[in-house]
Amino acid sequence: MMKIALTGLKGFPSKGGVERVGEAIAQALKERYQFTVYCSESYTPKDTRYPGINIVRLPCFAGKHMHPVTLNLFAALHAVLFGDYDLVHIHNAEACFVSPLLRLKFPVVATSHGQGYDRDKWNPVAKRVMKMLDFFFIHFSNRATSVSLPDAENYGRRWRHEVQYLPNGVDDELVMDPESGRAILERHGVGREFVLFAAGRMDRTKGCHFLLEAFSRTNAELDLVVIGDSDTDRPYIEMLKSTTDARVKFIPFVERKADFLGIMSQARVFVFPSLYEAMSIVLLEAATLGIPIVASDIPANTAILPEHVVYFRSGDSGDLEEKLRWVLAHPAAMAEMGRSSRQWVKDNFSWRKISERYDALYQSVRRTAIN
Questions:
Q1: Contact indicator for 308, 344 with CB cutoff of 8 Å
Q2: Which CATH superfamily is domain 178-348 in?
Q3: Which pLDDT value is given to residue 59?
Q4: 331: helix, strand or coil
Q5: Which ranges of the chain have pLDDT less than 50?
Q6: Which residues of 270-291 are buried (b: 16+ CB within 10 A; e: fewer)?
Q7: Which option is the CATH number for 2-169+350-370: 3.40.50.2000, 3.40.50.720, 3.30.365.10, 3.40.50.1100?
Q8: Confidence (pLDDT) at 118
Q9: Dihedrals φ, ψ of 101, to 5°?
Q10: Are strands 53-58 and 87-91 parallel, antiparallel or unpaired?
Q11: pLDDT, tens digit (0-9, with 9 covering 90-100), for 127-175
């Protein structure tokens, strides 16, 4: 059985984003490969256990910049000094600064989960550094992949180097707990009908402020539920919470996945106003549940759900308001759109199918490295 190390992740259990992808890959393929996952002690609890998956917790320096740098560096050093792997899979292009070190001993697969320098959350110096790190992602991996088709094409144009598009996926049947989800909603005073916004990490690029602006101008007799991590960008969160609209209900990040999906399954509409994404799993999950979706028309969204979503002009709260009014006034049309989006995702973004592509990728890289 091949042994594979996963790095570039904060750890397990996932709270969203990149970690959710790494977790899904390891869970789907753990019968075929022996996975070791490098995790931060501050992210992964000491008693974390995943049957069939090895967890290595590492101490890291604190801080927005130093934490990922030290986690990835210490993971690479541990792998080179103590690891017995057939392959290392690095998640996040920015983590690939350790690729030259890992290549001394292992073949490397690298996956980009988005181009961080396109996000407003980083200052100009950080963006410049992240852009420079693309060099290591492209030139020091045996195979470079991207979860985003637009990003893969962008890498190809910039570097004249093939980057394989390998998208995120979602389970065909999601495990959800509607009763527990309803209990959470009731504790926060949410009525039976509501519009939902959710983000694992709440920052301005998620576009929640556009939704609050648009929703405030509607007279819809239903609630707007905002779910997300309140520690990511506290000034931004406080700005959102300063709203005087009593229909807006804020709920902290829901850690238990079945609870979150139970909440999502009861939403009248799911709104996804992001200014930038690579490829959102929560968007796929909403589609899999058949929830009507209103989303920003950024390429990352239109690439995965081209005809099964009501799109608004990204960053335009006026257009979002207009689309929200239409969606809420046409429930039958939106229910049909929800059914078609569910089938589309099942046909094109099933983890069952995508995990087979990762299996083929690992086998191909390993064969090439041996030869």
A1: yes
A2: Glycogen Phosphorylase B; (3.40.50.2000)
A3: 92
A4: helix
A5: none
A6: bbbbbbbbbbbbbbbbbbbbbb
A7: 3.40.50.2000
A8: 62
A9: -70, -45
A10: unpaired
A11: 777 778 889 999 999 999 999 998 999 999 998 999 999 999 998 889 9
